[in-house]
Amino acid sequence: MEVQQGGAPAPAAELVVSLREFTLSDADAEAFMSWASDPRVVRFQRRDAYEHVDQARRYIADHVLPHPWYRAICAGAGAPLPVVGSISVKPGPAEDGRLFRASVGYRVAHAHWGRGVATRAVRAAAEAVFAAWPWLLRLEAVADVENPASQRVLEKAGFVREGVLRKYILLKGRPRDMVMFSIVVDADTDRRRQQNKPDGP
Amino acid sequence: MAEEVTIRRFELSDMDAMMAWASDPQVAAFCRWEPYASTGPLLAFLRDTVLPHPWFRAICVSGAVVGAVSVSPTPERCRGELGYVLARAHWGKGVATATVRRALRDVFAELEPEGLRRVEALVDVGNPASQRVAEKAGFRREGELRRHYWHKGRARDMVMYSFLSSDPLPE
Fold it and tell me: ipTM exceeding 0.85?
């Protein structure tokens, strides 16, 4: 056991998380089911849990592949890395025909919770879209008030908490209070105004 | 206040009264539109946007039309966005606050059956007068949404306020 000088614990083994595009393969549809059919994961999503892999197959074909920015989250061990979740960034809404903001959402299979997968995925997605979309000034995300794990992910990924918006979004037909988070480009400096958090889960 | 504030549906004949505030650059400064220079575009706005709108009302003081108040749809069925505009002659007399209170009562009575639960107001961080109107009308200040709103060529920081159908309605 290492003797530590400071208060920080010994670092965990490096967790590899990468993002890639989805395919129409059976493997991707089955991986998708690992979170899309799980009530614990869909609890804070608009959609009900999927019951059959055909629903995942159809969703990947009709919604994921044409989407402006939708990625599979790959994490763990092995080559290729297994797909353990998904993350998407939706541009808009536009105002006066102008795009300047986008919103990010993500889902991770329950077996892979609590290891920093979502945090790394959100950080990687934010870096990618700010680089890919020069018009992007605000990247926002919401988390249900009853989902503190997701709130922690967003904070650790560098998002700034802006407040609780009451009865803001309908989830499964019920209006929910949501915590709003964002990373913005500073108007004066063109630099990103975000929380700087040390690396780690 | 001495004069009575009421709200009612717009009519085409209200156009001249609308021109009084629609042409005023000081009024337009915090609105999303540029001051109107002629009646043609204003008539088109009244006919094509105001009359078919789900909830757009004229603000009347002692029977004269002095402004407009609206609650507009958003991407979520449960929430609507408040907007209002008032002729400069009637600023600073409590007309906007009285208007918003009446609007909240009427809009929830009419649209809660259709799913409306939240009326939100986004006020520029540089507009303290409008922030006070929201606060006096009983809205809850929820936070500042940074670079959230496109306004005349810039992405602005806005204060987010909300009033729920379950919040106690002001008198």
Answer: yes
Is the CATH number of domain A16-196 3.30.450.20?
Answer: no
The Cα–Cα gap between A48 and A38 comes to: 9
Q: How far is B78 from chain A (nearest CA, A)?
A: 7
Amino acid at A79: A
Q: Determine the 3-state secondary structure of A58 from DSSP.
A: helix
Judge: domain B5-119, CATH 3.40.630.30: yes
Collapsing DSSP to helix, strand or coil, A6 comes out as coil
pLDDT per residue, tens digit, chain A (201 aa), is: 444 444 555 445 678 999 999 999 999 999 999 999 999 999 999 889 999 999 999 999 999 999 999 999 999 888 889 999 999 999 999 988 899 999 999 999 999 999 999 999 999 999 999 999 999 999 999 999 999 999 999 999 999 999 999 999 999 999 999 999 999 998 777 777 777 654 445
Task: For chain A, positions 119-158, list CB contacts with chain B under 8 A.
Answer: 137-138, 140
Put simply, whether A191 touches B (Cβ < 8 Å) is no
Residue to test with chain B: of A168, A171, A174, most B Cβ within 10 A: A168
Residues 6+ apart with CB under 8 A from B15: B39, B42, B43, B46
What is the pTM for the complete model shown?
0.91
Contact status, residue B14 vs residue B2, Cβ threshold 8 Å: no
Under a CB-based contact definition with an 8 Å cutoff, are residues A95 and A137 in contact? no
Contact B76 A93 (CB under 8 A): no
Cross-chain CB nearest to A162 (options B75, B140, B143)? B143
Q: What is the domain partition of chain A in residue ranges?
A: 16-196
